[in-house]
Amino acid sequence: MGMFRLGVFTVLGMAVLVSAMAESVTQVNMELYNSAYRGRGEGWYYGLSGLADLRFVSAGNKNMKAQAALEFSPRDVSSGLEESAPMVSLKRLWFKANFPSWRLTAGKTKVAWGNGFVYNSGDVLFGSLSPNLDLTQSAFRDDTAFLMAFNVPLGRFSYLEAVVLPPELVYANSRYEVQSIDKISGGMRFFFPVGGFRLEGGYIYKGDKKTAYDMLGHRPYLSFHGHVGVDVYGAVSLAAGYDSTLSGDDNRDTWEEISRTVNFSLGLFHQFQVGLDGTLGLRFEALVMPWQEWSRMNFTELTAGSGLYGIMIYPEVSWNFRSAWTVSLRSLISPVDGSARLTAGVNWQVFQGFTLMGYVTANIGGRDALFAWDRSTAWPFKGTALAWPDYSFNGFSVTLGGKYSY
Amino acid sequence: MFMRNLILFALLMLAAMAGAQSAEDIVRELDRMQTFDRLYTEGTMISTDRFGEKRSTYRAWSRGARDFLIEFTNVEERGQKVLRVDDELYLFYPDAEDIIPMHGSALKQSLFGDVSYEDITEGRNTLDKYDVGLMGSEDVKGLDCWKIEMTATSRDVPYPRQVLYVSKQDNILRAAEYYARSGRLLKLVDVKKVEMFAGGRIMLTEVEMQDELRRGSSTVMRIDKVNVEPVLRDDLFSLRSLY
Which of A177, A182, A214, B142 has the fewest Cβ atoms within 10 Å of its own Cβ atom? Predict the structure, then answer.
């Protein structure tokens, strides 16, 4: 609690400082969702969830940019508890300084390496391998971390970027503890255009995890983005060497061990004009891990992160029309066990800054599959109810919500 | 009789040829008058429908016909940027801290309302996309105007047929009509304000576009601030301007 208060006061202090140093702009983004879904015991649940962030953005000094953003998420404001249990987290706290020949970024923020919307093997900083994604969210893989980045332009469309990330604080023994320096992460990337393609390559040593399914050790990667009739993009990366999160042998030093981390992502994207004011977008992405699992696994192993299927696919169709409406169909497909998660959505930008949203999500798959339509007869024994509580999502949900920025 | 008809036909052909040439000249001059070596603008797009107004504000820099940078400044889109240099086009989303290269058909995506990324970042080259012809003269808001028909030469334009009304006195666009391929009237354009600059150049600083398919729906494009020939940094049209 003490740490939490200290964090909030630090952020507010920074926000005041930002405001005092330069002209600043305040922005609030709110998202609220009503969801009805089927739970573990085939019972139905209804919950109100949401997210809000309050941002202080610097303006006025063209060589400096800064932002502080607090994110509020009510755990379950309709739970009937006498006292609601809101969670406040520090989402962003950064500044960027533009020097004549280089740029410094410091604080809690995101640096986007590689190319990919849902699957991005080049994202070795944060990892984009997790098969568990909520397709109703407005932003996927929106993770941030404390870092310092040094960006050196090499011409108009090329640059070198070095980044160093301190280890995360770890909550243990009822307090937050600082990790030793060997948990540091750091690396560099190079971005340059060749012909009609943008190429990117880099390396990072990862000392600690930033997200679930993140792999530690030596992480080299290559990525590209180009156009051959349609937009095409992809990346490849692997992990080698010491990974403290592995049990038993924590050093990937043989090809057999390293090969299991090799992952390729590939994406295709194209848009068509439909009618006078409509746009139809088609996206297809695949994540391939050739030396991972190509036969059916039990969902408990998959969700625990002890294995990944060798291939995952993400197709998306979206139709935007009248500059206010978007209808979309998104899916996560697991070809190995023949299951999929489908999310159909409608967004309507009604007023300035205000969007209404509706989604229906349905899993298609057997009871042990990654995306099961009905897992009622396959849940682990109730003794592990803490991991799989009664209100666990079970195959079907309907969500209505709204988003407002002001 | 035959000779008379022949002479009449020859005169009509000459008149038609002279008219077509004249329409091209008018449109070419329209483009020239609205092209600047360097330009800084701040503007507002206001779209109105039965649910009220939506505003997007922006500031933009351009150099020649091919270098262009726009940054949105309204709350919902603050910090989003689009950079075009020659044939390279990049989008920057501040939350994702990510630069997205755009190609081909993605350029036709709507930036706001009817305006696509391509429309706002492309140099003026109307005659590359349209065949033009003079339809005659018509009075618009008390001004004697050329009536010019433009027919698209490809399907890569939002409106296959347009009719422009260009003032004879100063060669300034005063109004326009946009039609579907079927001939149905889609939009009525009314040029409300024009600002003059040295060298006979002009800028349409307020234009209203009325949607004829949706009653009460319109878009106003307004330039709030203009600086012609500003001093621009050498690295303004590069990736580092996006971050």
Answer: B142
Query: What is the model's pTM?
Result: 0.84
Q: Is residue B63 within 8 angstroms of chain A, CB to CB?
A: no
Chain A residue with CA closest to B85: the answer is A156
Return the CA Rg of chain A: 22
Alpha-carbon distance A205 to A223, whole Å?
Answer: 17
> In whole angstroms, what is the distance from residue A220 CA to residue A209 CA?
16
> Are the C-beta atoms of B112 and B128 separated by less than 8 Å?
no
The burial of A182, by beta-carbon neighbours within 10 Å (0-12 exposed, 13-18 middle, 19 or more buried), is given as exposed
Residue with tokens 């307090």, as numbered in its chain: A175
Cα–Cα dist A262/A124, whole Å: 12
| Residue A139 to residue B96: CA distance in whole angstroms | 8
What residue segments make up the domains of chain A, in order of their start?
A: 99-258
What distance in Å separates the CA atoms of residue B203 and residue B100, rounded to the nearest whole number?
Answer: 31
Task: Render pLDDT for A231-278 as a digit per residue (tens, 0 to 9).
Answer: 999 999 999 988 887 877 788 889 999 999 999 999 999 988 787 778
* Per-residue pLDDT at A386: 59
Angle, CA B217 vertex, CA B215 and CA B223 arms, to 5°: 150
What ipTM goes with this model? 0.79
Q: What is the 3-state secondary structure (H, E, C) of B20-79?
A: HHHHHHHHHHHHHHCCCCEEEEEEEEEEEECCEEEEEEEEEEEECCCEEEEEECCHHHCC
**Which residues, including other chains, have CB under 8 Å from residue B197's CB and lie 6 or more apart?**
B36, B203, B228
Interface test with B, best of A156, A320, A347 (most B CBs within 10 A): A156
Residue A207 predicted with pLDDT over 60: yes
Task: Give dist(CA A258, CA A253) in Å, integer.
Answer: 7
Phi-psi region of A376 (alpha: psi -120 to 50; beta: other; left: phi over 0): alpha
CA A258 → CA A215, A239, A251, distances in Å?
Answer: 11, 6, 10
Q: Tokens for A108?
A: 């809690």
Q: Which residues of A touch B52 (CB under 8 A)?
A: 351-352
The listed CATH number (3.30.420.40, 1.20.59.10, 3.40.50.1820, 2.50.20.10) that belongs to domain B32-241: 2.50.20.10
Minimal CA separation from A227 to chain B, in Å: 7
Q: Is the pLDDT of residue A200 over 90?
A: yes
All residues of chain B having their beta carbon less than 8 Å from the beta carbon of residue A25 are 78
More confident residue, A359 or A227: A359
Could you give the 3-state DSSP secondary structure of residue A3? helix
Per-residue confidence (pLDDT) for residue B39, from 0 to 100: 92
Q: What residues of chain A lie within 8 A of the CB of B51, using their CB?
A: 350-351
